[in-house]
Model the fold of this input.
Amino acid sequence: MRVRRLVFNIHLYVALVAAAFVTVLGLTGSIMAFEPELFRLTHRSLTFVTPADHALPLADVQAAAERAFPGEHALSLTVPRDAGESYQVSLEKRAAYVNQYTGAVLGDRPAGMDWLGWVHQAHLRLAVMNRAFPGKEIVTWGAAGMLVLLLSGLYLWWPLKRVRIRWDGAARRSWFDVHNAIGICAYVFLLVLTLTGLSIGLEGTTTSLYYSLTGSEPSKPPRADIVAPDGATRLPIDSVARIAAAAIPGAAPFLIVYPRAKGPYEVRSRFPEDRTPGGRSRVLVHPYSGTVLFAEGSRTAPAGARIVVTNRAIHTGDLYGLPTKLLMSFASLMAVAQVLSGLAMWLLRIRRREPAPS
Done:
C-alpha cells in the first residue's frame, strides 16, 4: 500500500508539473499530423490546378516565377506528388505558386512562417526561436514526464482494471473512470508517440545508439568546393532532375535546391512508399559537369539512418499515410484528454478534500 501511495504521488506531482507541456504537445501534435493537408485546405487558390496532358519543363516554371517577381531568383523548386497541385518556386522573399500546365502564377506568400509554421515550432521548441532558450530541452523533459505518467498510470490501473465509466455516482468517481478508460484504451498509441518523441528529442544520443546497434556508419557526402569553369553556365534544372532520377532508379525527384556559393545542386527524391513530406532519398549533382557527387536512396541507406527516418515517420503518422496520421492525431488528443480529466479529478479532490481513490 505504501508503494501504491508513493506511485500515486509521483503520478500526481509529475502530472501537475508536466500538464501544460503535455497539453501543448498534444494539441500541436494533433494538428501537425495533417500539416500538408491543412496547408492545402487553407491555401486552395495557391495549391489546386486542373491537370492537363503535359506539364511545362521545370525551367519554364522557374522562369514564370522569376518574371512575376523581378529581381528575385529561384532558390528551390518543389514538384508535388499529386498532379492536381501546383508547383512551388521558393524565391528570395517569397514562395511563388505556378500552374505547371499553363505557366500562370497563381499567387505567392511571404517567406517566413505562417500559422502552421508556428504550430510546428511550438511542438518542437515551444515556438521560441531564440537559441539561448532551451525550448527543445523543455519539450523533451515534457515527453519524459509523459513516459513517467504512462508507466505509473499503468501500475495504478492494473489492480482495478477499470474500463467502464459510471455516470450515476460522485463527479470525481466519474472523472476517475473517464481517466482510466481513456488512458488504457489509448495506452499503446500514447506509449508509441511518447517513445518516438523522446527518441527525436534525444537524437544526439539515440542516433549514435541506432548506428551502434546495427553496426552501420553514417553516410558522409563529399565536401563540395565547386569553382565555375571560365564561360560555363549551370546545367538547366530539367537536366539535373533527369540525372537525379537516373542516380536512384525508382525514386522520383520532387525538390531541387539550387547551388549556393560553391555548392552543388541538391535533389530530394522519394519512392512510392515514402510518404514523408521531406523525402528520404538524396542526390548531389555537380552544377556544371552533371557528375553525381553523392546519391543515397532510402531503400539502401545505412541501417541506423533507416531507423531514424522510420522513428520520425511513426511519430508524425506518415508511415502508412492517412490511417497512421489519424492514429497519431487521435493519440495526441487523448493525451490532452488525460490532462483535462486528471485536472478535473484534482480540482474536485481539493474542493472536497477527499482521500485518493484506491
User: Anything to note?
Assistant: DSSP finds twelve helices and eight strands in the chain.
